[in-house]
Design a protein that fits this description.
Helix content: over 70%
Radius of gyration: 20 Å
Low-confidence stretches: 388-400
CATH architecture of the largest domain: Up-down Bundle
Distance between the termini: 42 Å
Number of helices: 18
Number of domains: 2
Strand content: under 5%
Structural class: mainly alpha
Mean pLDDT: 83
Number of strands: 2
Largest sheet: 2 strands, antiparallel
Strand order of the largest sheet: 1-2
Shape: globular
């Protein structure tokens, strides 16, 4: 077992694992290939992605508790086995239901077990740069789809969908498990963790507070549009903007760059200007982008600005809400606390496709999503920032 006190080695190991699970965001590459090979409908295939995102969020409840009790190394290793194993099992799927189980449930759970570890571990190694380090972590997750878009495309060129799943599963399991060996808590942290500081909440204490419900509801409303756009990027380009096949496929890379860049920048901005202030700005960007997609998508430039804006908003939210959770409820039970709040993300993963099934088109879905984002912005204005003094560290910002 590798034990390191070099925080940069820990950073590399954690980000290596985080990068690998970014293959989830390149699902539309697999989806197109599956549709051609099997003839299954686009919505049937998209549901696989939605289930994986839902299970991803749901599993963080358990992975958050596990990382708090047993540490990140074991949790990451389990995540690598689930993620890689789910991909390998997906190579044997012959029906949509089998794929829902192997990819949707097992791969989704693997993502959830991996995802929590860098977030909860790296903030302990870099306590004075929480926003920046969380932004880096989730930025790698968002931007990694650029790499895996090419990796999956390359695997598909050389084999069938089944073979690509098998090869990606073996590669992913190996990378995550190797990365896990370099990830540990700072020496002596286990002793400190037994003592709660001012501003720290256990999960049971957190869910009794009004700010928990405001944060949870705001998170749910915030990420509905981004999840939908990233999961159906190619089809949105084809149906909403009338793009050709090749051009529509490039949207995946554009979204990945915007998503990852926003995560990195938003985390840094939150350290400088306050998480709540940056959250409000991201909501405004999201609302304007959705309105652009709703009413100006026939203008190609406005379409691209719209999808880029939604991706920027989505990336920003994914960087800011983990930071926001840590600031409001402390580091004592951060893994399990964020796991509970992250269930809003899981509900959002199913909400987008549910809204589309009711309103019938992407354009109408964007309008409904804009209304949801406006409500989220309103909630943000009901919160106020305050300073909480922690005896073991500098004052930190939290909200009520």
């Amino acid at each position: 077992m590798i034990k390191t006190n070099n925080k940069y080695m820990v950073l590399v190991g954690a980000l290596l694992a985080q990068l690998t699970i970014a293959g989830l965001y390149a699902w539309s590459i697999f989806g197109s290939a599956i549709e051609k090979e099997t003839g299954w409908s686009g919505d049937t295939i998209l549901l696989t992605y939605s289930i994986a995102q839902f299970v991803f969020a749901f599993s963080t409840i358990f992975s958050g508790k596990l990382v708090d009790k047993k540490g990140p190394k074991l949790t990451l290793t389990i995540g690598g086995l689930l993620y890689g194993g789910g991909l390998i099992l997906s190579s044997f799927a012959t029906t949509p239901m089998m794929l829902y189980i192997t990819y949707g449930v097992i791969v989704g759970a693997g993502v959830g077990f991996v995802y929590v570890c860098p977030l909860s571990t790296l903030v302990k190694w870099f306590p004075n740069k929480k926003g920046t380090i969380i932004g880096l972590s989730v930025g790698v997750f968002g931007g990694g789809s650029i790499i895996f878009k090419e990796v999956i495309s390359m695997l598909l060129k050389g084999s069938t969908v089944s073979g690509a799943f098998m090869n990606l599963g073996l590669i992913s399991a190996a990378i995550i498990i190797i990365g896990a060996q370099f990830v540990s808590l700072p020496e002596g942290f286990e002793k400190k963790a037994a003592v709660k500081s001012t501003g720290d909440f256990t999960t049971a204490e957190m869910i009794k507070t009004p700010k928990f419900y405001k944060t949870w509801f705001m998170y749910w409303l915030a990420v509905i549009p981004g999840l939908l756009v990233l999961g159906a990027a190619k089809n949105i380009g084809l149906q909403v903007a009338g793009l050709g096949e090749a051009t529509a496929a490039t949207i995946i890379s554009i979204l990945a760059i915007s998503n990852a860049g926003s995560r990195l920048i938003s985390g840094s901005l939150s350290d400088k200007y306050g998480t709540l202030n940056v959250l409000k700005g991201i909501f405004v960007i999201t609302i304007l982008s959705l309105l652009s997609l709703s009413f100006l998508a026939d203008i190609q430039a406005m379409f691209y600005l719209g999808v880029i804006g939604v991706a920027i908003g989505y990336g920003g939210f994914l960087a800011l809400f983990p930071t926001y959770t840590n600031q409001q409820f402390g580091s004592f039970s951060y893994g399990s606390n964020y796991g509970v709040i992250y269930q809003a993300y899981g509900l959002a993963a199913l909400s987008g496709i549910f809204i589309k099934s009711i309103v019938g088109s992407y354009t109408n879905t964007f309008i409904v999503s804009a209304v949801a984002a406006f409500i989220g912005l309103f909630i943000a204005f009901t919160l106020s920032e305050r300073k909480v003094f922690r005896p073991d560290s500098a004052p930190i910002t939290t909200t009520n």
